[in-house]
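Standup notes
- HV: blocked on the assembly model, inputs below
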Amino acid sequence: MSNRSGNARSLIALTPIREGVTEAGESYAYRLRRLLQTLPLHTQSPFARVPDTYLARWFLLDDVRYQGGPAKEDHLENRYLALLVQFYGPTDRWLRNLWQQAHSTLEQLYCHAWGFADVRTAEDWQRYLERCRVPTGYFFNGSNDDPLLAQLKALYLRQMLTHFAIEHQGASDEALHQAFLQWVQKHEPANLTAPTWQPGAATLAEALRFQREQGESDDKD
Amino acid sequence: MSNIAGKAYAMNVVTPLRRGQMVITRLIHWLAGTWLFRSKLLGLQTLSLIHYAGWAVLPRNRWPRLDNEQPREQLHYNYYLFFSNFNGSWEQYVDSFSSAIPAGLDLMWLGNVGYPKSVPRNPFHAYIEHNQIWTDHYYSAYPLAASNDVKAACRLMPDLLTLADSAGRLSAEEFGRRYRGLLASHQDDLGLVAESPVVSLAHKAVAERRRREQDAEDAQ
């Protein structure tokens, strides 16, 4: 059993949802699915605010599938809200950060889950999710397990260095040297927090807008 | 509903596992991380389109039960959950999987009810499709990047930092030599990312609608 591969961790949690109908006449499951499917995406996703989140998902498990005869037919007695996340660092820290950054979303999503009524604090939430947790049997890391800020800065610098290399092909050593020193000043390779890419940026325009905003905010400081 | 976040695709597959199989499956999971089974799963490393993937066992009588009033599950089988985050299309992934590690897949899904084996591919496709659960909300920290982009960027980073740190103390000639050395030794790691290609017209239509909505919000 392994919930980790290097510094990368895997979290799987299945939370049972109560049967019932809201005042608006929606079943709890229908409401939950509607909420999940209308959550903002990418940079606006609740996960984008949680440090060190590589990839994350929610899905509603309504039932299990019948495999046809001669298999026996199974059906679940409960629906489950599945949370699957791959992230960097300790699980308790990630769960606390999720609560701190997105507790209003969590309350909306989990308010019809069994046992959630007593969850009031980050510690309650952490204990609650631990009860829903399913251990990952085998976790495969095909990517990289550096902290997310290091990964995003590395992606940013790779993009910028590639542009630099294209633009300075055939330049003299003198010109190259001066241009690279300016490049270092502008892109601050050792500074992981800025300039860099925004977690969840789905377009280059969005990533670049974030850099501009950071620059403006730095200027104000 | 979206299984896609930029270049990443989220797959969830839930399948029944024969009762007597659970201990063996757990042993396989444990051995999968050791040299004994490395040859069977070596192909996973060459499947560079995967960010992260995993397998988990859901014992039939140990599904999360948080309240005495919550109905108790009454299942015949244990269940098996597979998840993956990969780049490219569903077909590319499933085909690559069955081509690269057919023996490894058969080992990981050993004892699953109805599992047809990974080769030939059509029954395997049908099995995955039948048991796949769609994702309702999916997030990637780097939708612009494939797994290979992340790995390449992180390989480049240490040498780039060294050059950036020392550049101010070097002569132009020495800098030029080291800069060209960096490009030569990392030529496989350089590259430009761009927005993901269209993988489905439906997804493209959703993305365009969202972009229009965002533009309208920004304009207000």
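- HV (later): unblocked. Chain A has six helices and five strands. The mean pLDDT of chain A is 94.
- Next: hand off to the docking folks.
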